[in-house]
Amino acid sequence: MTLTLHLAAGTISMCVHAALEEAGLPHDLAWVDFGTGAQGQPNYLKVNPKGRVPALEIDGAVLTEAPALLEWVAEAGGGALMPRDPLEAAHVREMMSYLASTVHVNHAHKMRGHRWTDDPAAQAAMRAGVPGTMTASARFLDARLRGDWVGPDFSVADLHLWNITRWMPGDGVDMDAVPALRAHHDRVAARPAVARVIALHEAAA
Ligand SMILES: N[C@@H](CCC(=O)N[C@@H](CS)C(=O)NCC(=O)O)C(=O)O
């Protein structure tokens, strides 16, 4: 199987990169340079017409959207990164769905307001709302974490959560007020596979 991950430093593609490392699946990296707007250029739009990362080429077929990618990587890696119990697996999907549809979208209001409006004043108002919406999500997540992990064991949802928690200090969240979430972030970041990914993204930034 040939895998190529299209990714950009520090973005949501980090969690898929980390999942590939955790699963031990050999892969190539194709960095997309956001500095030059490469995600909107024809070459990349041929890969992902949405102009977003991550995108994973799997023997030439392209899969996008972090939750779908994470679940595919878990399965391709032998299943250890998803719970086998159907209800626990559904809770993992519940978390990834919340992260992608709500928390990531809160975060996007900081830099990507132009997706929703051309009005600079409206964009500034959206940016100003980010500390509040991200703090509300962080508080929910902090209360939701009951043990070390989102599910009974480490899973791809932990990688997704870690990736988004990583943005929170920059989004104005007081991490001292969400100690369980901060501890979860540090626990995931300390895993050797994740530490390798962090080093690669910091070097590429
Ligand atoms: N729903 C998608 C969101 C992907 C997404 O928005 N990625 C951002 C990086 S964090 C991106 O590619 N942004 C490029 C742009 O907006 O131009 C997912 O979860 O994979």
Number of strands: 4
User: What value does the average pLDDT take?
Assistant: 98
Overall geometry:
globular
Secondary-structure element order, N to C: EHEHEEHHHHHH
CATH level 1 name of the largest domain: Mainly Alpha
- Percent helix among the residues? 40-55%
Task: Output the number of helix runs.
Answer: 8
Ligand catalogue: glutathione
Fraction of residues in β-strands: 5-15%
The CATH architecture of the largest domain can be named as Up-down Bundle
Q: State the CATH topology of the largest domain.
A: Glutathione S-transferase Yfyf (Class Pi), Chain A, domain 2
> What are the low-pLDDT stretches, counting only 5+ consecutive residues below 50?
none
| Main beta-sheet strand count, sense and barrel state | 4 strands, mixed
